[in-house]
Amino acid sequence: MTVNKENLQFQTEVNQLLHLMIHSLYSNKEIFLRELISNGSDACDKLRFEAIGNDSLYENDGDLRVEVEFDAQAGTITVRDNGIGMSRDEVVANIGTIAKSGTKEFLSKLTGDQQKDSHLIGQFGVGFYSSFIVADKVTLTTRRAGSTEGVRWESDAQSGYSLEQVEKATRGTEIVLHLKEDEKLLADGWRLRNIIRQYSDHIPLPVNMRKTEAGEIKDEWETVNKANALWTRSKSDVKDEEYQEFYKHVSHDWEDALAWSHNRVEGKYEYTSLLYLPSKAPFDLFDRDNTHGLKLYVQRVFIMEDKEFKLMPRYLRFVRGVLDSADLPLNVSREILQGNKIIENMKSGSVKKVLGLLENMAANEPEKYQSFWKEFGKVLKEGPGEDFGNREEIAKLLRFASTLDDNAEQKVSLTDYISRMKEGQDKIYYITADTHTAAKNSPHLEVFRKKGIEVLLLSDRVDEWLVQHLMEFDGKSLQSVAKGALDLSKLETEEDKKEQEKVEAEAKNMVEQIKKALDGKVEDVKVSHRLTSSPSCIVLGDHDMALYMQQLLKQAGHEMPSTKPTLEINPTHPLLKRMEAETDDDRFAEWASVLLDQAILAEGGQLEDPAGFVHRLNGLMLAMV
């Protein structure tokens, strides 16, 4: 019996995603069954966990399973589970809408090219909506464990969906796919069994179908998959194809994993870990709070997901997989997990396994590691600020662009950099900027290029955070070429030093004049050791944030402390020679202001008075005509 039927509309984003999925995944149709079985398996896991504290949720049916049926005559495939089920609100949240942050951002990346966009869908997660790849109507009936009323959801993916209350529904979820005319060949026992064995053999609970004899379907059920937890098997018994299919089950990704680490740890604490590195970044990678990478099991019983107990640090939030403890109690609570020694041991060991996997890849498969870095490098750069204990290991994995190559690709490791350091060089030099182009064209690099000293070019937004926490590597301190005093005395000849002293002495009066003209605007004015072809640059304090980052934070509404830069000048530049000959004090002050403003602009800063800068520049140009 059904009552209270409602007709509702999808979110705009759901309509877009459905259209894209139906028309883009035509070459991957069979994944619909993998996704529905994975969802059923997850629902059974959740019931098993909730029932630890409330055995009545089993409702005298503790034999958890997923069942697949078909009706060739009616052209339907049915997938059901006796798991946790859903309430009406949960159906609306999980089916009627896309309850994922970043959906609009994901859809904004779509190109209109079906082949390219299908890969984006894989990063978003296929899930329940893959049903519509093969079905023109889907009926979902579900009842949450412990509830007396069920709900039925139905849609043709065209005109929204209907919701109605259902009485006497069985616990769990049943999904009936009404196949499209050209997909009805899928309603075949032999074909469905092959798909289950290919994609769902690793599901750690039975996937059942009715037995067939001589083409006749019997009332007796049989288990189609192996129905044992893949991670409990010996590594030598698991094929790469099985590892890949389990990855797709646990991650809901449909791209292959890039690499994995499968380990059984024995000793004071015993646990098994199966950790995967994805090949492509998920669409919500930079949502630091949306961590859903690992699943925690206790003796093969699902307990909870990573977002609830933070087993992986946030800089490794892209890692997927499972951890299965032999020591935690089955009735473990979230409170017990906080600060638990077993959890801390598993966390520490798992982080080291991931970092070791990456280190091995970087050493032995550099091209493969480079593909990883392109996808996840920005996230890994968060590591030194979050994980002090593994800072050195993380630093070895970092990659940067440098002045050694005009290419923006980040390929240079800190170890590579140190191996190429000049004799007498004791620092790792770098510069941060908003873009790679701004970094490589910075006037601060001029003296380094002249002396052939390599400088790392840091242009990711996270780099300012990184260098605040990674201050040295392998005994060499990291030094910004745009902050603090620059000491290249160990790399200079006596002739260079004498020439510099001469320039400083000759420019002493002009430095004092500029300092007077810019009183209140700058901390100091100095003769530069950095410039060879530019007239001026600004230098920040050692611990000051780069101007472009200050500007971004101000735009985001953050209060920034007021700081004054140091202006460095190049007295050998023609513009400074012209200023030296200036007899009009007001005009000299105008030139000094222009020097400061253009130096600020070169650093990605924003002028307080852009119109005033233009006015002064125009006036000075007219005076020179």
Descriptive overview:
Helix content is 38%, strand content 20%. It is α+β, with helices and mostly antiparallel strands. The chain folds into 4 domains: 2-228, Histidine kinase-like ATPase, C-terminal domain (Heat Shock Protein 90, 2-Layer Sandwich), CATH 3.30.565.10; 231-367, Ribosomal Protein S5, domain 2 (2-Layer Sandwich), CATH 3.30.230; 399-489, Rossmann fold; 494-624, Heat shock protein 90, C-terminal domain (Four Helix Bundle (Hemerythrin (Met), subunit A)), CATH 1.20.120. The protein has a 9-stranded mixed beta sheet with strand order 1-6-5-4-7-3-2-8-9. A hairpin with a 5-residue loop joins β5 (149-155) and β6 (161-167). α1 (12-24) crosses α5, α10 packs parallel to α13 and α22 packs across α23 (610-624). The protein starts with a strand and ends with a helix.
The CATH architecture assignment of the largest domain turns out to be 2-Layer Sandwich
| CATH fold topology of the largest domain | Heat Shock Protein 90
Q: Looking at this structure, what is the CATH superfamily of the largest domain?
A: Histidine kinase-like ATPase, C-terminal domain
| Most strands sheet | 9 strands, mixed
Class of secondary structure makeup: alpha+beta
Report, as a whole number of angstroms, the end-to-end distance.
Answer: 92 Å
Shape: elongated
**Helix count from the secondary structure assignment:** 23
Instruction: Return Rg in Å.
Output: 32 Å
The tally of structural domains comes to 4
How much of the sequence lies in strands comes to: 15-25%
- Oligomeric status of the shown chains? single chain
Strand order of the largest sheet: 1-6-5-4-7-3-2-8-9
Could you estimate the helical fraction of the residues in percent?
25-40%
How many E-type strands? 22
- Unreliable runs, pLDDT <50, ≥5 residues? 97-103
Question: For the record, what CATH class of the largest domain applies?
Answer: Alpha Beta
Q: Which whole number gives the mean pLDDT?
A: 86
